[in-house]
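> Could you send the GNAT family N-acetyltransferase prediction when you get a chance?

Sure thing. Input:
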Amino acid sequence: MGIEIRPAVPEDLSEIGRLDGIAFGEQLSVQDLADAFDVEPPRFVVATEDGSIVGVAGDFRFDMTVPGSPTAAHPAPALPSLGVPGVTWVSVSPTRRRRGILRRLMEFQLAEYAAAAEPAAILTASQGGIYRRFGYGPAAVTRAVSIDRRLTGLLTPVDDSAVQVLSADRARAVLPSLHRNWRKQVPGALSRSEAWWDRLFLDREQHRGGRSAKFYLVHPEGYLSYRIRNGWNGGDVESVCSIVDYAPGSASAHAALWQTLLAMDLVSVIESEQVSIDDPLPFLLTDHRALKTTALRDGLWLRPVTVPALLAARGYGLDVDVVIRVLDDQLGDSTVRLQAGPGGAMCEPASSVADIELPAAALGSVYLGGHRLRTLAQAGLARADDPASLARVDLAFAADPAPRHGTGF
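Output:
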């Protein structure tokens, strides 16, 4: 028999866990599998050969925040959101690589998403060269930073008396609502179910990387969690504070949380992969050079599926009336007319000549405002006969703040 693709059944879960562990170089324990599948299991599809599972792909359901349309009366309203599948647990047996199994899994998923009229699918990629050929485009930037706490503080001190250190039990009761408030403000931010929160608070020791259990700093309008890796060089402290989760829901919460972090005398370095590219933190510090960007990586990837629904779901910063042709090898090309602006958006199929033409992956890259249409055009990934039309659509797709998904999956 050849390779067959089918939806998974509950009896497949242990083999799925074994295969994923092999593919990613991990030994998943019985507890790991119980945590993964008993709390909130993904929906899986599997590739089988002679009855054995040789490939797998899954997805979670998320609500994803998308850019809105600020107005003079409401410069920062709650942003709209969109229900999307988040692709995860993608792996193929090392003995069955380069045989088209991954492609068949991805095509099976995409066909299901198209049949269900999903607006888009999202994922985070372990490798940068895999998913563009399936129509996914890198849609946001993940920034890693390191701050030498001993060299800086806040330029203008703030009242941080509202910040508390909460126990895990108390934090579990208040973090979900604070996260929901933060999520409504940030494009790309993903929802978390109650089951998802339960899993986050398991905080198993084997997943701490030699660091402490999580500590929770909580302000009435935001929070962050962190771990500590203790270290000493003779009498000098070399401990590192690693931010795990970061949801400052207001400017006052942001400043107060950072002032509290920067006052921790028994920490030398604060590091994070959660500080967005446009985070105001450098401008709050007495020395902006104390914050060093150590890496810029692709974060969330987005794959357009039902283009009219996707484009109509978000807001736009200025009025546009444009025909867009989206090139799509898997799902078929589509031409749509987008009429949008601060007052709302309407998008429907069109038969007229396109003003702008771009591949599905390129649309995925600009949709959340994480990358500019003009940049993709300069790279040959978008085409427009009228430069003025491209410039206007580029500005319409821009988003503030920068997208950040905030939840690993």
